[in-house]
Amino acid sequence: MCQSMRLLTVILGLLTISSAVFAQGIHTPLPGSPERQAVCDTLRTYVAANYTLKRLPKPIVFKIDSIRIQGDYCHFEGIPLFKDGSDAIGVYVYDIVLNICLERGGDGWMVVYDLSRTDVPSDQEMREIKEGFPSDFPTSLLSKFWRDKFNSVR
What we know:
Layout: H1 3-24, H2 34-50, E1 60-70, E2 73-82, E3 98-105, E4 108-114, H3 123-132, H4 144-152
Antiparallel strand pairs: 1-2, 2-3, 3-4
C-alpha cells in the first residue's frame, strides 16, 4: 500500500473513532432545535402534572440554567415562566428550581428522576436519593452541587 493510502486509512480511522467519542460526549442542544424542543415539551407536561398550584392560564416555557445531554440521558435545570415572559412562580407554579433527569426512549423523553427540592438534602435523604437514582444515569450530566452530593454518600 502506498504511503498516501496508509495516511488516508489512518485519517479515516481517527475520524471514525472521534465521531464515536463525540457521539457519546455531553452537549447542550441549541435553542429552537428539535432535541431541545422535545425535552421542554416533556417537561411542560411534567410541570403541569406535578408542580402547579392551580390551572395554568397560558403556555409555559423555561428559563434554562442548564440542559445537558449525553447519549439518551438529559439533565435539566431551570424555572418555568409564561410564554409571554411573565412570572408563573408563586401563583401558578411552585417556587422551585427544577432539577430533572430524563431518558430518551422509543416514545421520546421521559422523566426518570426528579431532584428538585426546596432545601439541601440531609445525609440520610442523600442516601435515599442515591439508592433510588437510576444506576445507568451518567452523573457527569448533573450540576457540580449534585455530583458533590452523590460523591459524599457513603
